[in-house]
């Protein structure tokens, strides 16, 4: 299952990312090897997400109910 992160820095992408918002991540080992994360952002027009520096996010553990709600909402 996909993970979730919270945006802690949107200085370089304020139009695409909202500070303090929880975002869904998609698995991408190659991106992670380069300290990047594949994120489903505000645009949602790209089902494969966009790459952002991992330093812009912090991992977050969500209750199962929240995970179910967030994954059903965004696809």
Q: Mind explaining what this structure looks like?
A:
This protein is an alpha+beta fold. The chain has one domain (4-74): SH3 type barrels, CATH 2.30.30. Helices cover 21% and strands 28% of the residues. The protein has a five-stranded antiparallel sheet. The longest helix is centred in the C-terminal third of the chain and has 11 residues, at 64-74. It is globular.
The major pleated sheet works out as: 5 strands, antiparallel
Low-confidence stretches are none
Q: Order of helices and strands, N to C?
A: EEHEEEH
Question: Helix share of residues?
Answer: 10-25%
- What is the class in the CATH system? Mainly Beta
Number of domains: 1
Which sequence of strands runs across the widest sheet?
4-3-2-1-5
Give the overall average pLDDT.
88
Alpha-beta content class? alpha+beta
Q: What's the number of extended β-strand segments?
A: 5
**Proper CATH architecture:** Roll
Indicate the overall shape.
globular
Q: Radius of gyration, Cα only, in angstroms? A: 12 Å
Number of helices: 2
The first-to-last residue Cα distance is: 12 Å
CATH topology: SH3 type barrels
Percentage of residues in DSSP E strands: 25-35%
């Amino acid at each position: 299952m996909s993970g979730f992160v919270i945006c802690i820095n949107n200085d370089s992408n304020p139009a695409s990312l909202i500070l303090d918002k929880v975002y869904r991540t998609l698995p991408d080992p190659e991106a992670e090897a380069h300290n990047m994360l594949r994120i489903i952002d505000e645009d949602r027009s790209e089902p494969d997400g966009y790459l952002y520096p991992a330093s812009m996010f912090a991992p977050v553990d969500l209750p199962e109910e929240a995970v179910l709600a967030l994954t059903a909402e965004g696809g």
